[in-house]
Automatic annotation (TrEMBL):
It comes from Desmophyllum pertusum. Signal peptide: none annotated. One of its GO terms (cellular component) is RAVE complex. This is Protein rogdi homolog. Belongs to the rogdi family.
Length: 312
């Protein structure tokens, strides 16, 4: 009698598994694709239409957004930036840095030479890889038999969308593990964590050339993202008359006092401050990526209960 009950339970479990494959997984993939497309569109938002290789318009066109940047309770820095897609397309920044220029100075960024926010571009690229895997799986799999489950195990959807530690549950999931690329997780990380770029690398990257007229030789400015915020870091430098006898060890939150050699001169960082502003579409993008990751995890959890089924 116990064996009969067990057989009936397994039969019901198998039917539920097959229903999940035929009905639920395609719906989840469609929903997932919609979320990823919306997130990609959000990151590409621009007021100027750009064209792809075949001439098609890329990105959603809308009125340009301007965001204010200023130091609280001082006139050290005041101005605005316009962020479109992965570019800072415009900026008007007024500085008053006593150690650099007592009278102050003003610089601009123009559309013809924008500041490239590589973090956004990287996030867009990871999203596109995830979108392509979702579409490929939807096109190639009908989820109607156990044999097709085995075939789908070899695909890479979940490898791009999930971080899976349990190998047993992974082997019984219709999304599989693949090469564990974690596209969405990588995209989220690129937006969430600011680039830790040394000042010497900032100078050598060529980004300083986008400011017109150029920044003073003793000032370095650098843009990066920290989640939904655009951060502008400002450093002032002093040229040392002789090479330092010892160099201060780099500190993540305190670069002041560090020395480095640039263009055959030794430089010391004498001050550092940051200003930031919130970019709403980046906040929306983070929420959408989080929703996509949760959707993938929920799908994985639903299939974990079928690990008791043979060859499933």
């Amino acid at each position: 009698m116990a064996e009969f009950v067990e057989d009936e339970d397994m039969k019901v479990l198998k039917l539920e598994f097959e229903w999940l494959l035929r009905e639920h997984v395609p719906k989840v993939l469609t929903q997932l694709g919609t979320i990823l497309q919306e997130c990609s569109k959000c990151l590409r938002l621009t007021s100027m239409p750009s064209k792809g290789a075949t001439g098609e318009i890329q990105g959603e066109v809308r009125p340009q957004d301007y965001f204010m940047l200023s130091t609280p309770n001082s006139d050290t820095l005041k101005g605005y930036v316009a962020v479109e897609g992965e570019n800072i397309s415009k900026a008007d920044l007024k500085f008053k840095l006593p150690k650099a220029s007592s009278s102050g100075f003003r610089v601009f960024i123009r559309e013809r030479l924008p500041w490239k926010l590589k973090q956004i571009q990287d996030a867009i690229n990871y999203l596109q890889l995830a979108i392509e895997k979702v579409e490929e799986t939807k096109a190639n799999c009908n989820f109607s038999s156990g044999q097709e489950v085995s075939k789908l195990l070899k695909t890479e959807i979940a490898s791009g969308l999930l971080t899976i530690n349990n190998k047993k549950s992974c082997s019984n999931s219709p999304t599989g593990c693949g090469r564990n690329n974690k596209f969405l997780a990588k995209g989220k990380t690129r937006l969430s964590l600011p680039d830790k770029t040394p000042v010497l690398d900032m100078l050598m990257s060529g980004n300083q050339k986008v400011f017109k007229p150029g920044l003073p030789d003793d000032v370095v400015a650098y843009f990066c993202l920290n989640s939904d915020r655009l951060v502008l870091s400002i450093y002032t430098l002093t040229t040392l008359p002789v090479p330092p006898q010892s160099s201060k060890q780099p500190q993540e939150n305190d670069p002041v006092g560090q020395t480095f050699e640039y263009n055959s001169k030794w430089m010391e960082i004498t001050s550092h401050f940051e200003v930031d502003c919130s970019i709403p579409r980046l906040s929306d993008s983070m929420l959408l990526i989080g929703a996509a990751l949760r959707l993938c995890q929920q799908l994985k959890d639903k299939f974990a209960v079928f690990s008791v089924l043979p060859s499933r």
